[in-house]
Design brief:
The chain is α/β, with parallel strands linked by helices and about 260 residues long.
């Protein structure tokens, strides 16, 4: 049974699923859809043009669907689309897309920590962790199971590869390929994210060696990125992980981060 506090505001046009709980002083705006089993905690807001899937929890003072902070935005009916099973902590701000034909997208199973700011048209995939006070600029892409530690800042249009780890305080201005650890300012390659890959994803030692060898060609091969990718294709046994690395680098528009000093 859906429970709406008498001290909350829910716009008459909003559509709420089964077993939704809207706590005191929460705000649900117009043209909002909230799926089953969601919890909207006190002082949280779900603003116009936002669609939320099932089993999401939005904590106090989180604001979902704010107007995009983009000078190209002129009041279009843009959207924020949130998937299922996300935990959105206190004081998070997530903007809608800039234009009506695009949306900011949050996938499934993400942990979005306190004070995270996600700007317009970002595309957050599944099972990511976005650390406290991290800032995600517009048009960024964060692939599955990436981890951004506290106080990370992503530049406009950055791509973050799957199962990568960005350490606290990094300001990222280039794309971060999958399966690696980054550190420092400017951000640099700091090795393969081996502990997560082995302990939580059961990636074999053999594949870990192949990933390390691939990135040795990229970051320490004393050659161009293009030549490094060719050598990966020729010299490294192919697997899903190696294919993901090649795909990511070949499709990077901003270039990838630097080698470790």
């Amino acid at each position: 049974m859906t429970m709406i506090s008498k001290q909350a505001y829910v716009d008459p046009t909003a559509k709420l699923g089964n077993n939704v709980e809207v706590m005191p002083f929460a705000f649900i705006g117009e043209d909002v859809e909230i799926g089953d089993n969601c919890i909207i905690m006190p002082y949280a807001g779900v603003l116009k043009g936002t669609t939320i899937g099932k089993n999401n929890k939005s904590h106090g003072h989180a604001l979902l669907g704010v107007d995009p902070q983009d000078f190209k935005y002129h009041g279009e009916a843009s959207r924020l689309i949130v998937g299922d099973n996300n935990d959105i902590r206190e004081n998070v701000v997530i903007a809608r897309g800039t234009h009506a034909d695009r949306a900011t997208k949050i996938g499934n199973g993400n942990h979005i920590m306190e004070k995270v700011h996600i700007c317009h048209d970002a595309d957050i995939h599944d099972n990511t962790v976005l650390g406290i006070a991290t800032i995600i600029a517009g048009n960024t892409v964060i692939e599955n199971e990436a981890i951004l530690s506290n106080l990370v800042v992503l530049h406009e249009g950055n791509r973050i590869g799957r199962l990568s780890l960005i350490q606290s305080g990094c300001r990222v201005q280039k794309d971060v390929p999958p399966y690696i650890i980054t550190s420092g300012n400017p951000v640099v390659y700091h090795g393969v994210n081996a502990k997560i890959l082995a302990n939580y994803k059961n990636v074999s030692e053999r594949i870990l060696r192949h990933i390390a060898n691939a990135y040795r060609l990229v970051f320490n091969g004393d050659t161009s990125i293009e030549d490094a990718v060719m050598k990966i294709k020729e010299q490294i046994p192919q697997s899903e992980e190696i294919s993901n690395i090649v795909r990511f680098i070949e499709t990077s528009k901003q270039g990838i981060i630097q080698a470790e000093y």
